[in-house]
Amino acid sequence: MASVLAAEAHAVLYQVVSGNPRVPGVVALATNREGSIYEGAAGVRSLNTDQAMTTDTVFAIFSTTKALTGTACLQLVEDGRLDLDAPARDYAPDIGELQVLEGFDADGDPMLRPPRRDVTTRMLLLHTAGLAYAFCNEQYHRLAEDHGQPSVATSSKASIMTPLLFDPGDDWEYGSNIDWAGQVVEGICGKRLGEVMHDRILAPLGMDSTAFTLDADMRSRMAHIHQRSDDGSLEPLDYELPADPELHMGGHGLYSTAEDYCRFIRMWLNDGMGPDGRVLGKDTVEMAAQSGLGDMKIRGLPGVIPTLSNYAEFFPGMPKSWGLTFMINDEDAPTGRPAGSLAWAGLANLYYWIDRASGVGGFWATQVYPFADPTSLGGYLDFETAVYDNL
Asked: Is residue 9 within 8 Å of residue 30, measured between CB atoms?
């Protein structure tokens, strides 16, 4: 069975690096509760070099960072130090300054009013606080283009001091919520988010190639981001996140490897247990894995900045919810992933899933803009299908 999975998964990886259009390189791992059931890499880290992709290649993992920040929040809930339903400004006071955007006046200036209720940390983890991203929201894009709102890629405090699009709790909108959740963690712990993560998540799980700042060893194994052009060609970018960021961005700022991320996935598959002890309580894991949206469902993400993201939606037409801090597919997916599984992705076409019912999950890593690249996303879905076909 393992040899069949290896053959089918290898075929998927080599197709995405050799087809037209292609990706420069890819790493994919699948794991069960005990350890990896498939590890593979194909292609190169950069089209500017001949360095081969390897399973220990380091990637900017973008929004797959969010689940680790969510885990740090959940640990503080277990400690009795964080009340998810208390005002988030109790822990991160600056979030109390954010106002609701009611549109733009005749001169193009934003019209703002105070929110009708406080943002809570639960709202941040559920993406119901009212925050967005410029690459998938027209109003935020207008704030950036016409009013100089800094991008979250600057890792600056100013980049998250953005207006709310609606009163907290009224709707779902994907955005910088988890960056603020990271600020909640820092406010409670009195330490930088990366230090909290290292001590309570990364070190206990053996994730020694995961950090907000690259060390020399990680840099030597780093893959480079490539930009896809309209004709399908790829150009390596000379781009990195800030080396010494003002903020450790809990929504997107980590570097990691597929090997490390699968250690994190295994913890969730094992109801919070790591190799050297418990990271989260089982009841906490079960709570976080449930939808927190009630009857509300999440939506696809518009591609407002085409160089950064295409329109993005997993399994179009299928209802999907959100937990703390994962997407949840409410019905069985065509890949074989059962209803109630957890998943999300990162901007440079990184994808993962966590199927606690079947005890399997996986991570797919490329470094290509824009998000929802058909070659990379299609390869990921084929990879996930191969895993389920061989369970």
From this structure: yes
Question: For residues 7 and 79, what is the distance between their CA atoms, to the nearest angstrom?
Answer: 45
Model confidence, pTM? 0.97
Which residue out of 38, 46, 66, 309 is catalytically annotated? 66
Taking the C-alpha atoms of residue 314 and residue 326, their distance in angstroms, rounded to an integer, is 13
Q: What's the Cα-to-Cα distance from 152 to each of 158, 222, 344, 368, rounded to whole Å?
A: 9, 22, 19, 18
**pLDDT tens string for the chain (391 positions)?**
578 999 999 999 999 999 999 999 999 999 999 999 999 999 999 999 989 999 999 999 999 999 999 999 999 999 999 999 999 999 999 999 999 999 999 999 999 999 999 999 999 999 999 999 999 999 999 999 999 999 999 999 999 999 999 999 999 999 999 999 999 999 999 999 999 999 999 999 999 999 999 999 999 999 999 999 999 999 999 999 998 899 999 999 999 999 999 999 999 999 999 999 999 999 999 999 999 999 999 999 999 999 999 999 999 999 999 999 999 999 999 999 999 999 999 999 999 999 999 999 999 999 999 999 999 999 999 999 999 999 9
Q: Edge-to-edge strands of the sheet including 320-322?
A: 36-43, 25-32, 360-365, 350-355, 342-346, 327-329, 320-322
Catalytic residue among 38, 91, 140, 174: 174
Active-site residue, 63 included: yes
209 is catalytic: no
As a whole number of angstroms, the distance between CA 340 and CA 331 comes to 7
| Catalytic choice (46, 63, 159, 291) | 63
